[in-house]
Amino acid sequence: MQRFVPSRAYFEPQALDYLLGKKLYDQLEALNIPVRMTSSHNRVTGLPGKTTAEGYREAKKTLVVGVRKSSDFSTCKPSANYQLPLNTSCSGMCEYCYLATTLGKRPYLRVYVNIDEILAKAKKYIDERAPEITVFEGAATSDPVPTEYLTGLLFTAIEFFGREPYAKFRFVTKYNDIDSLLIAKHNGHTRFRFSLNTETVISRYEHATPALAERVQAAVKVAEAGYPLGFIIAPIFFSSGWQDDYSHLFSELAVKLPETAKRDLTFELITHRFTKRAKANITDVFPKTMLPMTEEDRKYKFGQFGYGKYVYDAERMAEIKAFMIERLSEYFPAAKVEYFV
User: pTM of the prediction?
Assistant: First the structure.
């Protein structure tokens, strides 16, 4: 899997007041990437593309460098207490992505250069809750790995939390460009998670992402570096041959992972779901999508954020849950399933 190299970059003027902003500007110019200025990292206009699909693909090639201005962190249930806002979006083009709802027509990649201010705010949250442990999620609205080789934001955050006795950090990625993070002084305070799915799902729906074997190989490296390890299996599709496909995924993972990693392993299980807004955006961007989004085949359920989504009915959910728990118990008996939704 080749590294993400943006076709263009935009900078907020304030970003150049920060050391990281200046460093990024120089790096991008050295790579001969066109750099422009924008008044806000939330308002980038004039990107190429005559159609919605073309505009989406071009946005995914666009890096926006800005300053995180909001002082408060969003909550992040059920996985953490707070989101740690390092960046937004990612270079992958997964057809089912929930960011189709949250980001809509603005899927360009944003990175925030005021990392010291962001971590100072995290420190306040930690101190307010101490001695209770405060958990921060670093990938709630992004995959932070594709831009890490440019920014070093994850490395900085990992070492910060490694020094905090009353804090934990966690993030998830689909990407395998993680070697720079293997030497970070994490002190076991960061859970490094990978998003996995069957080879069929990855090849069919997860465009511009590494293959399953590459992700598993990266997970092995992470485990050998002593990080607590976790996996998100998402979205789980109820389709022809799904049981064989997920059994194969778990058996392959069990063979490759070192035994030491299996003693402290977590799984998060998320079934496929979609909203009306996401479906509309997905069909605009991927007009030939084969995602199963027939509303009549699903149950409508209101979510925690005030909008409804289409999920599998109770009978299918129960079947999926029983199967996944049984297989995980077989291959990873010491693992913790954090949640199933």
Answer: 0.94
